Amino acid sequence: MPHRRLTGSRIREKRLDQGLRQSAVAEAVGISPSYLNLIEHNRRRIAGKLLHDLARVLGADPSHLTEGVDSELLDQMRAAAAAFGETAEVARAEEVAARFPGWAGLIAAQARRLSVLEERVQTLVDRMAYDPQLASSLHEVISAVTAIRSSASILVGQEELDADWQRRFHENIHTDSRRLADSSEALIAYLEAPQAESATATSPMEDVEAYFEARDVHIPALEVAEADLDAVVAEAGLVGPAAKLLRITATTYHQDAMALPRQAFEDASVALGYDPVALAAKFSVGFDVVLRRLATLSRGDGHPPMGLAVCDASGTLTFLKHVPGFTLSRFAGVCPLWPIFRAMGQPMRPVRADVVLPGAVPTQLRCFAVAQPVGQVQFDVPPAMQSTMLVLPDPPDVVRDPLPVGVSCRICPRSGCSSRREPSIDGDMLQAL
Amino acid sequence: MGKRVLLIEDEPNIIEAISFILSRDGWTVHTHEDGETAMDKVLAFPPDLIILDVMLPGRSGFDILRDVRAHAQTGHIPVMMLTARGQDKDRELAGRLGVNHFMTKPFSNTEVRDHVRHLMEA
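YS: structure for the whole thing
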């Protein structure tokens, strides 16, 4: 449903908020109540003088009555509906967002919160099942309990024991009881630790992304030749796997920074219109290095917003930098049509593709991607592949036939897509959009 | 001399307790604590029954069980596994590898003795 058709819903909402009768408002702007009724039900378009008159009577800014709904908010609402079955009127999500932006935001925020909590639960489940430290602690406790039980059982059994055996089993119980006490204390200390961190922790990847996001993906301490990686990791305050992952990511950042010194790269980026092919040629570096480096250029320094996504050969997203208009979800299953995945099918060949996201106001993005091996080369061992994609929202020149992509199948309204993995949540949505 | 049991376990006090119980029940008990060399011990001292812990230094009890079953000289020997990990997947894996009985710690002495008797009578 085009955004402008929802202008009527906003006018109606504003009028009802102020307790004004339809006839009174219609009279004030010189139209019939029945015509205003058609406008309010989005059955007549409205613009120009009449829009301004109605805005004046309702005490509203005309632009607030006509502006579109944030497509990202709509995607989040649809994702929220997808997560809870098909009971919500998905086709009317845009109308809800237009009329009740606060409630729409709340739905989206709750859905995001649920995703974070589900991820946290999964992290804890994985920890309980696979954490070697926890497994070792439990094994220690159970072994001590087993030994105590067996020894005690012998001592209280029916058989007569000579003094030597009695002494040995008493000593064993004493030793194992002390061991049990120590291992129990260690276990409790271990189990208490995650409660403190669970207030903020999600997954290690998200922790690392949050670190970079908080710094707009620009870490001055890593831009210098004598960068102290340990200090950077320590300053981040991350622990465990997140700290290890940050060190790996920071190492790559530092290597990129050494290959493309910031000032020279920044100047060249502006001069060459942020063209990654031209930049790679100018500096004689890999295409992926340029893509990662472009993503570190800050909007605060006057550069255009640029998102980044990195995935491994399984398609698992290992790093994400979101920018307005570009967001991918690890949880909902990403649309396979994004160039980051296509690049994986043609390693070492840079891909440039303009893509369009569905929506009442389709969002165009320019993507540059390349897939290539990472890590050390070894005989008879398949290389680990990594695909990197830079995303520029609102490209300066709009192409006629951009590649249709989506966020994920469940909330994608496109019909006839050969890459669809599962039906979208509501068939009505297909007609509505 | 009674029938021979090889107890492969790395917890000294569990070794002592089980050895005591089975010895009093008439078994000749030999023990071994290292996973890496456990199969050498099995071959050097072919027992009538093996009691095998899962978590051992050097090599897991599952790997040892696989070797025991694969070797012509030892493939027929009944094996009872002891584990502190009671997960279904461990039990299933042991079953697929041909374990005769899977016992979760902490167990009672009576359980150990009864199952050993049962396996030798079977």
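YS: worth flagging: Chain B has one domain: 4-121.
IM: good catch. Also Strands of chain B lie at 4-8, 28-32, 49-53, 79-83, 101-104.
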